[in-house]
Amino acid sequence: MAILLAIPDRNLSNLSSELHRKAPNLDFRIWPETGPTHEIDFAVLWRHPPGLLGQLTNLKAVTSFGAGAEHLMSDPDLPRQIPVGRLAGPRLASDMAAYLVAQVFLHWRRLPEFRRQQHEGLWAPWTPHRPPNIGLMGLGKMGQAALDAFRLLGAPVQAFNRSGSNLPDPSVKTGRSGLHELATWADYLICLLPLTEETRGILDGQLFARMQPHAVVVNVGRGAHLVEKDLVQALDSANLGGAILDVFEQEPLASEHPFWTHPKITVTPHCASVTADSEAADLIIESYRQVLAGQGPLDPIDRSCGY
What we know:
Layout: E1 2-6, H1 13-22, E2 28-30, E3 40-45, H2 52-55, E4 61-64, H3 70-73, E5 84-86, H4 90-108, H5 111-120, E6 134-137, H6 141-152, E7 157-160, E8 172-173, H7 175-185, E9 188-191, H8 205-210, E10 216-219, H9 228-236, E11 242-245, E12 265-267, H10 277-292
Parallel strand pairs: 1-2, 1-3, 3-4, 4-5, 6-7, 6-9, 7-8, 9-10, 10-11, 11-12
């Protein structure tokens, strides 16, 4: 039996070395060198080539190489009975929280201005009178880690939970009206939602119209959460203060894309949270051993809701 890794947009040489070092008795294969496909019973996939799943006829389970699984759930060749998992270790969530805290407080405290003042020899102290209101869209592992980090720093945090289940905390909103209430309140509205048909395009003009003129949208979910033209329109009309974007509809972001040069947009290249090769190897091996034991992969996806 064999494990296939099909992650075309990532150099897998170091991950492959880690896997073979940690589990030398397992058969790891790197796409496109699949070998006999009937021998593959577990696959680790990220933006895998179309038609690949149709070739893997003896799969026991598949897992996403990351916290999102929309690329698997939307694949018509994904067998209905196959369990689907994902690789979302503890480091992934803590790295996401660190990115969000850094970006938000860098912007809120206007720290880049002090660099300019340093070059000008200008002494002009300034600090905000209060911590920012943080609105979190999504309370999965990533959202919970971000919530804990911001609260530790004394920032008021409210959140939106799409499912609306088990929400005794009044600071957690649900439903369209709850999302609008959160958007009106937040200084920074952070999208950490999974991508489903219900959340596609959720960051749109209607939502931006509810936000305060100084407020900032932060998208670290998926590029398809954002309606790009609505964002540019809101920024250009001064109805929105700024945007911090780490994910995009098309990646890499095209060199001619207007986001690169827009004065109110900060672009980072989908690097807010990336699983390190050593941790990824541990998770892959543990997930596979769980599958062999009949327990299903790590972090299983509820296929009825897509995450």
